[in-house]
Amino acid sequence: MAERSRLELIGRRLLSAVPSVFGVVLVTFVLTRALPGDPAVYFAGMMADEASIAEVRQRLGLDRSWVEQFFAYVWNLLQGDLGRSLMTGRPVLTELAERLPASLELTFVALLFAIGVAVPLGVLAATRPDSWVDHLCRVVVTAGVSLPTFFTGLFLVYIFYFLLGWSPSPLGRLDFLYFPPPHVTGFYTIDSLLAGDFETFRAALNQLALPALTLGLFSLAPIARMTRASMLQTLSADFVRTARAMGLAGSTVLWTYAFRNALLPVITTLGMVFSFMLGANVLVERVFSWPGVGSFAVDALVASDYAAVQGFVLTMALLFVLVNLTIDIIYTLIDPRVGVEG
Amino acid sequence: MSNVPLLEVDDVSIEFRTRSGVVKALEDVSFTVAKGEIVGLVGESGSGKSVSAYAAMGILDAAGVVTKGRIAYQGMAINGAKERDLQALRGREMSMIFQSPRTALNPIRTVGRQIGDVLRRHGGATRQNWRERAIAALAQVRIPDPARRAEAYPFELSGGMCQRICIAMALACEPKLLIADEPTTGLDVTTQAAIMDLIANLCRARGMGALLITHDLHLAAESCDRIVVMHAGHVVETGPVQALFARPLHPYTASLLAATPSPDRSLDDIGAIPGNLPDLRAPLPPCRYRTRCQRALEVCDREPLPALVEGKKEGTQGAFGPLHPQPTANAAGQLRSGDGSAVAPGGTGGQNPPHPNHHTVRCWNPLRTEEAA
Ligand SMILES: Nc1ncnc2c1ncn2[C@@H]1O[C@H](COP(=O)(O)OP(=O)(O)OP(=O)(O)O)[C@@H](O)[C@H]1O
Ligand code: SF4
Ligand SMILES: [Mg+2]
Question: Which of A25, A46, A114, B316 could form a disulfide with A216 if both were Cys (CB 3.0 to 4.6 A apart)?
């Protein structure tokens, strides 16, 4: 396929994300209105009477029609105004901007760990059926499916912090002895490297290790299972037999022929896993006092903090759209058949 | 050693160990392919043609095990050889064209690149020139506009075009032995003829040997020097093409020929042979054609099949002699052949292979000349 038509395909994918984004905005709006609890009551305080609640309601714009509220919401969104958090009194955008990098750093490191273990494991298991690697793969997959995240998290803390003392205390992103590196990306590991501060980098990595491991273990299973199944399928495909019949080197057959084809469903799985992880973050952030968006969202939900919940759901949904878009684009780059009708 | 055949399959048995039981896919299969000759391998679907081909290339599935016999390329053992040694052989010395051309090509790699992979591995092509070499390989099998085709992905090409790409790939490094599994299926008659011409020319000009697997008896009759007939994992009959088509000896061969009266019919649409192939997982009688055979004798259920060669007794046209000189000691009852001469059952070992041009059959009651005529 010509390069131009590929670019065109990618452009089309980007455009097709626009309706999704609009849908996301609409759904978040409706969802948060449908939540139980009346923010006006909450915000007016314990001692409020009918009159003051009504006044608060008016001030928040909650007395207007839903249509009006929606347009106001979209208008504000366009200006980057997500409203103010009732809990902290700060703009929701600021809160999210501060916390999102923490969650993303955790998720990315966990995902990298999971890919780094699960993909080789799946490939080895598929090339050596019924060997010990294959059995290990099966154990990992079963364990990953059956162990709840918070249990894995607490268990790891118990072993590595309490018993062995190898890990720093599981409280937040950085031990109190260190200062956060100057903000560039918001990822402490990357920012500290950019600043050339290796000690902070190590501290940040130490702090990251257990929560990332917890989250990574959770996502190992689907990746390993898909890699193994997909490799088994391509290894027995006709075109792999052709490659073998042509005497191509074992490594060419395995990587260029079998693995590249097997990668396609694995990439789809990665997208799904990433989205799961955004959800699983909530629990892991709780266990490790990680100052991410997940724990913020739980607090906001409990407090009926409309604006904060809305902001959180919107962010997650946009991330979701972004992840799917990225997967689609990677797919378009790898598979020439994408986008061909019929 | 000039009289060592290119490919020698000698008394080979193969089993597939599957979940639903052991499939006895091949039993005591023997045939050879010599330099410069085209050998046709014919038989119904499921008779073990592809399995024989995979075994010859050493590319059986992991579930497939050669339990007996020897497969050799120019005297070098294929079964039991190191994978590394086989890799050096495949694609350069011996190569193969597969049955289903669409799935036989990597769907996410351009066909030019795939041919380039083979040329870089065996044909001395480099990072700089593989593209031209691949285009040349495409041109060699008369693919129009080869430079543009080389940039295509398999899904952008027709089945017939994919098949020609596969043929180009198989022939790219000028192998000495070509195994072609239904190479012309799905091609129109003109292309089919062109492809067969190409293969025949390579055999004549370069002394390439070819094993042509086909359903199409007419194609086999036109292009092959010798024919090997398979049924349910047995080689039931082999012989030079004229003799075999003029005087089939095995009842199965005879009904195959009877069932394909016109040139445009192939084995695919045979309705005439009664019965089905037996289940290769179940216990099998010595003759796997037994349940379909109308010439069966009492001995067919009892004794291992004899290997007989036609005209072995000097000057006695239509008479059979044992393939191997020593009849087995426990052989029960001798068979009376048409002219009253004795026919002794032979052993099944390959210790004394017949001349390749002999017309041989494995059957207790083969057809006589006068019956076949
Ligand atoms: N991987 C496998 N596992 C189990 N059984 C197999 C396997 N491959 C082949 N067989 C069995 O071996 C027998 C011969 O199959 P083969 O593919 O060689 O037939 P064929 O003569 O090539 O038929 P066709 O004309 O349809 O291609 C069949 O009974 C088939 O079921
Ligand atoms: S051996 Fe007997 S049963 Fe088998 S084909 Fe010959 S005559 Fe028929
Ligand atoms: Mg076949």
Answer: A114
Q: Above 70 in pLDDT, residue B349?
A: no
Chains A & B: contacts with CB separation below 8 Å: 85
Q: Which atom of ligand 1 is nearest to the CA of B47?
A: 21
pLDDT at A277 over 90: no
Give the separation between CA B52 and CA B49, rounded to whole angstroms: 5
pLDDT category at A4 given cuts 50, 70, 90 is: low
B293 close to ligand 2 (CB < 6 Angstrom): yes
Best residue among B250, B284, B300 to mutate for probing ligand 2, ranked by most atoms within 8 Å of CB: B300
CB contact under 8 A, A250 and B104: no
Give the ligand 1 atom nearest the CA of B280.
Answer: 29
User: Which ligand lies nearest the alpha carbon of B366?
Assistant: 2
pLDDT band with cut points at 50, 70 and 90 for residue B147: very high
Element (H, E) at A94: helix A92-127
Give the pLDDT confidence score for residue B339 in this predicted structure.
Answer: 40
A66 Cα to chain B: minimum distance (Å): 50
Q: What average pLDDT does the structure give for chain A? A: 85
> What angle is formed at CA B132 by the lines to CA B127 and CA B133, rounded to 5 degrees?
80
The ligand 1 site (C-beta within 6 Å) comprises: B 16, 18, 23, 25, 43, 45-51, 61, 63-64, 99, 280
Q: What residue ranges define each of the domains in chain A, with the CATH number in brackets?
A: 99-292+330-334 (1.10.3720.10)
Return all residues near A25 (Cβ < 8 A) that are at least 6 apart. Answer: A73, A74, A77, A314
Query: Nearest CA to CA, how far is B18 from chain A (Å)?
Result: 14
Per-residue pLDDT of A16-48, as tens digits, reads: 888 888 888 888 888 777 766 676 777 677 777
Q: How is chain B split into domains, by residue range?
A: 102-174
The whole-angstrom separation of Cα A317 and Cα A297 is 14
Provide residues of A within 8 Å CB-CB of chain B.
1, 129, 236-239, 241-250, 252, 256-257, 260-261, 264, 334-337, 340
Quote the Cα angle for A87-A101-A14, to 5°: 110
pLDDT at A160 over 90: no
Say whether pLDDT at A335 is over 70.
yes
CB-CB neighbors (< 8 A) of B57 in chain A: 245
The pLDDT of residue A10: 81
pLDDT of residue A165: 77
Residues A180-238 have pLDDT tens digits of 888 888 888 888 888 888 888 888 888 898 899 889 988 899 999 999 999 999 999 99
From the number of C-beta atoms within 10 Å of its C-beta (0-12, 13-18, 19+), residue B115 rates as: buried
Mean of pLDDT values over A155-164: 83
Closest residue to atom 24 of ligand 1, CA basis? B45
Say how many Å lie between the CA of residue B186 and the centre of ligand 3.
14
CB B37, CB B208: distance < 8 Å = no
CA distance A55 to A279: 36
